[in-house]
Design a protein that fits this description.
By secondary structure, the chain is an alpha+beta fold. Helix content is 22%, strand content 33%. The protein has 12 helices and 26 strands. The protein binds alpha-D-galactopyranose.
């Protein structure tokens, strides 16, 4: 019997046509872009190697052919973690129907690819693996309080240029934002041009003279930031810093930049994703070596317990989540849910970054923007305005420059606030301040007005304490045991509670 089974499977493997070659499917996405999926197979007597490339190539690490049926395992990366995924496929002449299971109970991806060649495909270059056992990058001494400024991405996306940045710098001064503490004017993705013959990265036509722009921004008493990726390309498809880390750090330093946001983007194409901390340390070292003090902002979406290693890689701040958008659900999910358990990583010089502000971009109510600002300040988050400062309603400016609220964010003790009580949609958050008082946010995440109570026992307070409303700038008097307030839907009452 055993012999029969062995002979049968041998016959199947040998009888089937060899599947070596490239199999491709092209589709047009809803945004009009074309997407090509390649299944590259090397069939060695029924044993399979190769890769599946939807965007990045996913290696086939084991696989075999049994008649018209294939089974193989690919390495798929998701949120910075590589997992093995068992796939199946069936051959029908020149067509291969591939089924790739998905996570989180999502239906599998089913692809039909057509054979376009029978040649043995070239395998992608092996990924670079760096050791995470690197010496700690020396602290650069910057960002003793969370960085404050502005960033181009949330409002302008790709439509940012020299003129707009100068206009924003002017507005930062004329609106009083600079004097309220907002000093960094940060250019995000899409400034990058080509490398010259010596590999020196140039800016593109939107930024004809970076040095002149930097000088202009500095002349306003402001600082200026730039953006890149450790990958070959940035998230918007522009030139990244892969293989040019020290050279780029020197270029930015020579232009006079004071801040770098370094965004993982395409880096998984070249690096084994497990190397992520070491990849960030590489730029951390390069920035130090540049000789210019440059705040280092890590943008890697919170992958791989970033709080555990970001400071060691030289980071002053590090993103804890994917991108924020200008919607209540997005801000609420990122701010109230995804920041839990991270407070222990924040210290002066090193901050969790729940992403840039959306205040004033139009997708939320002013009440919701006040909630956004209050929570970010309680979280000791970087405050990077993301709206068009040249064209802003007074109500929005008032939210951004309320000094009593900003003082909570910038408190020199540098302790990140935490949620101390939750009752359905009612949440109380507290942050200890250097003078011994606490900043407390009474939040109502529900759709109806609600009475929210901050019990002093949750704040570890006994006796009576003075309460000051930080948005209204009024003393509420001395309270015992609790402070409570009626809070509007999606709103906040933020107070300082002191002896
Ligand atoms: C990623 C980042 C964003 C922004 C864009 C630019 O999505 O998370 O903050 O920098 O890239 O392409």
């Amino acid at each position: 019997m055993k012999i029969c089974v062995a002979l049968f499977s041998l016959a199947c493997a040998c009888g089937a046509a060899n599947l070596t070659g490239r199999w491709v499917a092209s589709e047009t996405l809803s945004n009009g872009q074309k997407r090509e999926t390649t299944v590259a197979l090397i069939d060695e007597e029924g044993s399979l190697k190769g890769f599946v490339a939807v965007r990045n190539p996913m290696l086939i690490v084991a696989g075999h052919v049994n008649g018209d049926n294939l089974s193989f395992t690919i390495l798929r990366e998701s949120s910075g973690v590589e997992t093995r995924v068992d796939c199946t496929a069936t051959v029908n002449g020149n067509e291969l129907k591939v089924t790739i299971p998905n996570d989180n109970n999502r239906p599998p991806t089913v692809l039909t690819v057509t054979r376009v060649s029978t040649e043995k495909p070239a395998m992608p270059a092996p990924k670079i693996a760096l050791s995470n056992d690197f010496p700690a990058v020396k602290y650069n001494g910057l960002a003793k309080t969370p960085p404050m400024g502005w960033n181009s991405w949330n409002k302008f996306h790709r439509n940012i240029d020299d003129k707009a940045v100068r206009g924003i710098a002017d507005a930062m001064v004329s609106t009083g934002m600079r004097d309220a503490g907002y000093v960094y004017v940060n250019i995000d993705d899409t400034w990058e041009g080509q490398r010259d013959a010596n590999g020196v990265l140039q800016s593109n036509e939107k930024f004809p003279d970076m040095k002149a722009l930097v000088d202009y921004v500095h002349s306003k008493g402001l600082k200026i930031g730039i953006y890149s990726s450790p990958g070959p390309k940035t998230c918007a498809g522009y030139e990244g810093s892969f293989g040019h880390e020290e050279q780029d750090a020197k270029t930015w330093a020579a232009w006079g930049f004071d801040y770098l946001k370094y965004d993982w983007c395409s880096a998984s194409q070249v690096y084994d994703v497990k190397s992520l901390p070491a990849v960030y340390a590489k730029m951390g070292e390069a920035l130090l070596k540049s000789g210019r003090p440059i705040v280092y902002s890590l943008c890697q979406y919170g992958w791989q317990d970033v709080g555990e290693w970001a400071a060691k890689a030289g980071g002053n701040l590090w993103r804890t989540t994917g991108d924020i958008s200008d919607r209540w659900q997005s801000m609420m999910h990122i701010g109230f849910e995804l920041q839990q358990g991270r407070a222990g990583y924040a210290t002066p010089g090193h901050w969790n970054d729940p992403d840039m502000l959306e205040i004033g971009n139009g997708g939320m109510t002013d009440e919701e923007y006040r909630t956004h600002m209050s929570l970010w300040c309680l979280l000791s988050a970087p405050l990077l305005a993301g709206n068009d400062l040249r064209d802003m309603r007074k109500e929005i400016l008032d939210i951004l420059i309320n000094r009593e609220v900003i003082a909570v964010d910038q408190d020199p003790k540098g302790v990140q606030g935490v949620r101390v009580a939750k009752d359905g949609d009612r949440e109380v958050w507290a942050k200890p301040l250097r003078d011994g008082s606490q900043a407390v946010g009474l939040f109502n995440l529900g759709k109806e007005p609600a009475v929210v109570t901050a019990n002093f026992s949750d704040l570890k307070l006994t006796g009576s304490h003075s309460v000051r409303d930080l948005w209204a700038h009024v003393e509420k008097g001395r309270m015992k045991e609790k402070f409570e307030a009626t809070v509007p839907p999606h709103g906040v009452v933020m107070v300082k509670i002191a002896k």
